[in-house]
Amino acid sequence: MRYWLLKSEGDCYSIDDLKKDKSTAWTGIRNYQARNYMRDDMKKGDMALFYHSNSKPNGIYGIAKITSNAHADETQFDAKDDHYDPKSSKLDPRWVCTDVGFVKKFTEPISLTEIKHDPHLEGMMVRVTGSRLSVQPVSEKHFNYIVNQLGQ
DNA sequence: GCCAACGTTGGC
DNA sequence: GCCAACGTTGGC
Length: 152
Hints:
Layout: E1 3-9, H1 15-21, E2 23-25, H2 32-41, E3 47-53, E4 59-66, E5 71-72, E6 96-97, E7 99-111, H3 112-117, E8 135-138, H4 140-150
Parallel strand pairs: 1-3
Antiparallel strand pairs: 1-8, 2-7, 3-4, 4-7, 5-6
The structure holds a DNA duplex.
């Protein structure tokens, strides 16, 4: 079982949206490294931290769970969708997504500032400025610390 | 295969 | 809203 951090722009798809939807297909990932993580390593039953970027504050707003293995991201075939990819084909889909379910929203977000200053979280990928990866692996130690010690 | 130009991300 | 850093594209 693995742990992840999923980034979303807060005003694009927030933890509140996920709470309302209960479950959603995590579509729109158009970065190969992120895709490879989803396709190869992300499995049904994995857990994820839900991170808001471009928000006040930026940080971890709650917990989600991975509820399916990777499957084709349907938005890549839809010419009207922002994430349409004309170079992808149904026979050989370039982009995948997994399904993600709501678990919990923290009463207070754990801000990026807090994450950066907590010595327990040294080595977390999201701490590195300029890390644009929107699907990141998180160590079990970091995940448990955030969920059990910081999150409420 | 290199690398300049471009578009996007994301912290501030 | 700005802009630095990053990833991708495409000409050569």
